[in-house]
Amino acid sequence: QTFDNDVQVIDVRSDAEWNDGHHPAAQHLPHTKILEGNGFADLDRTKPVVLYCRSGGRAEQAKIYLETQGFTDVKNLGGISDLIIPNKDNQ
What we know:
The protein is α/β, with parallel strands linked by helices. Helices cover 25% and strands 20% of the residues. The chain has a four-stranded parallel β-sheet, with helices on one face.
């Protein structure tokens, strides 16, 4: 999946999961840091934020927290497998 330049794509998975692979447009910001109130100061509240994790649960927790912090355009995209579609030639 591709995103417009103004969309902030955030991978909220753990460091180990991030290191195993991530969406090329993503920034890494573990949901634990978000829920502690850390790490999101550099995000632009005026631009859309899309979140993903392994299955969508942690992204939903992060989404709810960011909305309480004044972010108005936050979406939970679910799991990483929902974003990265394998090349059918490599299956």
